[in-house]
User: Which sequence fits this backbone?
């Protein structure tokens, strides 16, 4: 799986690099590149590409979507690391963008990446129907905005040092992390013009994958080290972050994560071999946390 | 003209308010409303609506575009006011968003407004061709991103307390302010499916209007007061902002602004009476600064 992930990350990196070359010159481009290229597993792209296999979509047909999602993910990391947010100084083993370039530049480069994501989808070279493209833009906007990533980050910050119940933590994590994963599994189904039932099912697979990823990330914060995560560890407790581990402890949380994996396998069963690679991603995500 | 502007602002405010009602609930919505509704001249919407008159486009056909542009403008104001940017505590006569709701919430609400802008254009109820919509999304992304608003704000901050020449100041102002004005004049021409020559001409009218607006804003910073601007005045000098006034002085800058107005009138001449309202906007913008 790691080989598959690395290959996919390389394909997406090359595409993003080329896309930047088509852009007009701006002093923010090197900052945007710093935030998107050079490192990162690009796990969301791997999910898009492996979901595409289920629906017989070629990778070069869906590469714009991977790039757009990575731009949005990178923007959210740049902003999350800011002093007034999570105040993290290390990301992907390098100084966070605001440490390297300053706070205002980091915010502006983040904003520019968010903006660029929509341009990449609207681009004429992204070879899917115009109606499909607009649907993708609408869904991606929803997943990134106030009921998605931005809304989830708001809750995450507001839940710090508070006693938060299970339902609220799950809601927060579904928005902060899950929504973009949802989009990654939904988008190929939209492009393949699958019916609404299938689209809903794939959204649910994505939501579970996102939850799994967030829990694995929280577990990794406890068991991992700076070398394999590329960022400081044991910071959730220090910051008083509301995680399932805080609520349930390590073992019970791990059990909850395993349930997510079972759910994913169950939902993908009907696709047979075609879904193998996507199921392997869920293994990879979970195994990271051991 | 003021009546026309006020009427337009009201129409756009009502639409945005209704659009928010169609959105899922999120704690960020009241913050987004605070940044977009309640005040502001919505001069960009007036430009879109008055440019639409030239191309016989009805206001209810183009209202989504006004709302999208206002979301982007409001987001840029919320972020510009942040402590690490222009550090302004007053906006439209009220506390800036970060003063009222805190810094992280202001950033997230800004991001959500930027995201929402693309959703509003992609919305099915926005009744224009899908190809036209995608073209609008691509252009708006360019005008808002690293070669537009975000890039211009980067330059503005980096030019503080430095000796900057005429060419660079103009380039900065064309990005920071001009690009979105360009879009406001270009978009109706795109919707009316005018040829590229006309589109380019309208972009140029928008660019001149944007420059005029920025210069008027700079002049107002010297001659205005907190009551009529809704924000503190005489702050450009304090912050060492690079403006044309700093370079040329008040009188010569005013002359330069009048030249912009002549240019706009000249370019719109061929549209006769149909362009009257748009020309009146340039009068209004300039007169604000006296």
Assistant:
């Amino acid at each position: 799986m790691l080989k598959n992930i690395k290959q996919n990350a390389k394909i997406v990196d090359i595409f993003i690099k080329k896309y930047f070359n088509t852009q007009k010159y701006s002093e923010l481009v090197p900052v945007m590149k710093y935030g998107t290229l050079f490192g990162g597993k690009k796990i969301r792209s791997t999910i898009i590409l492996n979901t595409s296999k289920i629906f017989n979509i070629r990778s070069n047909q869906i590469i714009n979507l991977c790039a757009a999602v990575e731009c949005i993910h990178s923007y959210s990391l740049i902003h999350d690391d800011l002093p007034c947010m999570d105040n993290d100084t290390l990301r992907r083993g390098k100084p966070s963008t605001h440490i390297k370039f300053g706070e205002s530049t980091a915010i502006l480069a983040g904003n520019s990446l968010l903006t660029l994501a929509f341009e990449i989808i609207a681009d004429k070279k992204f070879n899917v129907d115009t109606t499909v493209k607009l649907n993708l833009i609408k869904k991606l906007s929803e997943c990134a905005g106030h009921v998605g990533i931005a809304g989830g980050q708001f809750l995450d910050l507001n839940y710090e040092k508070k006693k938060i119940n299970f339902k609220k933590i799950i809601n927060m994590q579904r928005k902060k992390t899950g929504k973009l994963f949802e989009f990654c599994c939904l988008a190929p189904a939209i492009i393949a013009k699958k019916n609404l039932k299938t689209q809903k099912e794939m959204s649910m697979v994505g939501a579970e994958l996102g939850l799994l990823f967030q829990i694995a990330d929280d577990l990794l914060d406890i068991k991992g080290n700076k070398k394999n995560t590329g960022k400081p560890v044991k910071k959730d407790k220090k910051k008083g972050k509301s995680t399932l581990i805080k609520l349930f402890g390590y073992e019970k949380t791990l059990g909850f994560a395993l349930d997510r994996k079972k759910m994913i396998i169950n939902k993908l069963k009907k696709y047979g071999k075609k879904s193998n690679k996507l199921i392997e991603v869920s293994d990879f995500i979970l195994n990271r946390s051991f």
